[in-house]
Amino acid sequence: MSDDRTLTVDGWGNPRSKTVSWYDPAISAAAGASITGREHLQAIIDGKLPVPPFAALVGARLSSVAEGEAVFRCTPDESTYNPAGIVHGGLLCMLLDSACGCAVQSLLPAGVAISSIEIKVSFLSPLRSDSGELEITGKALRVGRQVAFAEADARSGEGKLVGHGTSSIALLPP
């Protein structure tokens, strides 16, 4: 490494880190074969089933589920920043997609899995770690035999609309 590179690294300060732990995702997937989608999601909220690994990775949590609706909460930290010093849009996209998917899942019978077909996201405001806890609310719009449609809104800690997404979701019967 050159002297110039060493000086740059030395000027960065101490590295930051975070530890991520998760449980085997097959545990939750197996449970979904015998309980309804809503029961499955409620079991995750209640701590009876493990949260999906992606949620542990970004600190997201499913906070409530109702008929055709799901709410996630997440407080972004600087580990989600892009090179411009704002929260990477991929985090918001993932949260909107998850809220859409869970809203649909809440209406499904036991054993039916879901998979996103497409998602359209509108980023309405930049986010930083001081934006507060995000609330992402997904709503199922229509659930057919093979495809479902949903939308989700993301709001900052102050209630400001910061993102909106729509999703087409494949239904995967057992």
Task: Describe this protein with a few key phrases.
alpha+beta; six-stranded antiparallel beta sheet
Written description of the protein model:
The chain has 174 residues and is α+β, with helices and mostly antiparallel strands. The chain has a single domain, classed as Thiol Ester Dehydrase, Chain A (Roll). The protein is built from five helices and six strands. The protein has a six-stranded antiparallel β-sheet with strand order 1-2-4-5-6-3. A hairpin with a 5-residue loop joins strand 5 and strand 6. The longest helix has 17 residues. The termini are far apart.
Task: Summarize the structure in short.
The chain has helices spanning 3-10, 25-31, 37-45, 53-58, 89-105; strands at 60-66, 69-74, 113-123, 134-143, 147-155, 161-172.
Task: Name the CATH class.
Answer: Alpha Beta
Q: Biggest β-sheet: count, sense, barrel?
A: 6 strands, antiparallel
Write out the strand line-up for the largest beta sheet, numbering strands in chain order: 1-2-4-5-6-3
Mean pLDDT: 93
Low-confidence runs: none
Domain count: the total is: 1
CATH topology: Thiol Ester Dehydrase, Chain A
| Helix/strand order | HHHHEEHEEEE
Radius of gyration: 18 Å
What's the architecture, going by CATH? Roll
Which superfamily, in CATH terms, is the homologous superfamily?
A: Hotdog Thioesterase
Write down the overall geometry.
globular
SSE map:
Layout: H1 3-10, H2 25-31, H3 37-45, H4 53-58, E1 60-66, E2 69-74, H5 89-105, E3 113-123, E4 134-143, E5 147-155, E6 161-172
Antiparallel strand pairs: 1-2, 2-4, 3-6, 4-5, 5-6
